[in-house]
Amino acid sequence: MIRTLDMMNVKGERREDRVGVWVKRPEKPPLFDGTMAEDKIAALGIRLRRWVSFHGLSLNVDPDLTHFSGIVPCGISAYGVTSLVDLGLPVMMADVDIRLREAFEEIFGPTVNETIHGLCPAIDAGSE
């Protein structure tokens, strides 16, 4: 997700003491300890239950950020939440999907659609 953000000129960073992907917000007032404000823009979740893994990711594109005022995302109350649109990027979900796939393929290789074409007649029949 950090690579995806980088493709859109957003510097996402990890923090040792916090989960998620964070962006610095110099335009906001500093935190109580004087450090620069930061907002969470993305998260990755993994859960194991009865030998089954559940996983997912969240990258805030254009959510209604007022909904976050009623919850404490990941139990972290000292920081805010942001989105790509909130940061001034007028992007659509389709734009982010393309960048996310490109970043994924840079690390893990081509996605299934490109690697199994010609190998599975059932899938090929659906693409014609």
What does this structure look like?
By secondary structure, the protein is α+β, with helices and mostly antiparallel strands. 25% of the residues lie in helices and 25% in strands. It has helices at 2-7, 93-108, 112-115, 121-126, and strands spanning 13-15, 18-24, 38-49, 52-59, 80-81. The mean pLDDT is 86.
> What class do helices, strands and sheet pairing give?
alpha+beta
Average pLDDT works out at 86
What is the number of strand segments? Answer: 5
Strand-and-helix sequence, N→C? HEEEEEHHH
H/I helix tally: 4
- Percent of residues in helices comes to 25-40%
Radius of gyration: 18 Å
Terminal Cα span: 32 Å
Q: What's the overall geometry?
A: globular
What are the low-pLDDT stretches, counting only 5+ consecutive residues below 50?
none
Q: Could you describe the largest sheet, including whether it forms a barrel?
A: 5 strands, mixed
Strand content: 25-35%
Output the keywords:
five-stranded mixed beta sheet; globular; 25% strand; 5 strands; 128 residues; alpha+beta
